Amino acid sequence: MPAPIELRRRALELLCEIPLQAKVAGVQALQQQPFYIDPELILHATKLIPGHPAKPVLVPPTQVEKRSMRTPEGRAALIHALAHIEFNAINLALDAIWRFNNMPADYYRDWLKVACEEAYHFSLLEAHLKTLGYDYGDFTGHNSLWEMAEKTVDDALARMALVPRTLEARGLDASPPLRNKLAQIGDTRAAEILDIILRDEIGHVAIGNRWYNWLCEQRGLEPLTTYQQLAKQYNAPMLRGPFNLEARRKAGFSEAELTQMGNLP
After folding, report:
1. What angle do the packed helices 72-99 and 7-16 form, to 10 degrees?
2. Element (H or E) spanning 157, and its range?
3. pTM: predicted TM-score of the whole model, two decimal places
4. What 3-state DSSP class applies to 1?
């Protein structure tokens, strides 16, 4: 059996990793490695994070290529965009592991599970993209997910509120109609992959909810009003329907929160 690794240190190393396949393979290997958490360890990033391959070129969201998914190139651009989201999600999970110390051991186990599943999702989408004649990096991408991570580097509560519970939860709403459109145009493999991603992402958002509510309890804060304050403070994107209420319930959103979302303009 290999020697146990210190998980937070290894997560930071993988976050800084630049070669794409080295990052993905390293994360997937974590599933088989024994690890421990050193509560006294203070980590500082000495390299640029996150490590990012030379491609895709990052541009503002408004400049990302948009093409009709009914064309082969347009469908490939869509699969590429989904793969880019999953690549960012790997980095977000790794960052949640290394950056916030003094959390319960289950917190780190949860985010390790997320990182490994996001790497799996990325691998599925990357492989499907290759069947369409393209590679990851052949289209542009944007950095909106990571920008919110940068805003919340100093507060685990804000991170849990605004990354998994806000940005990633939007995928719960967007995934079913997108999956149906792909199935309608005959891309059954892409539809199957989105089914897998939705199943797992419900669990990822539930992990965000778990630790958001735990942190609120530790600090004596009321979750609903605290979320509203954080969303305003950090200029989080406005929530817009239609919402996948069934998936959001499974992910742990309260009925009070879902009712409030239903009343949004």
Report:
1. 140
2. helix 156-162
3. 0.95
4. coil
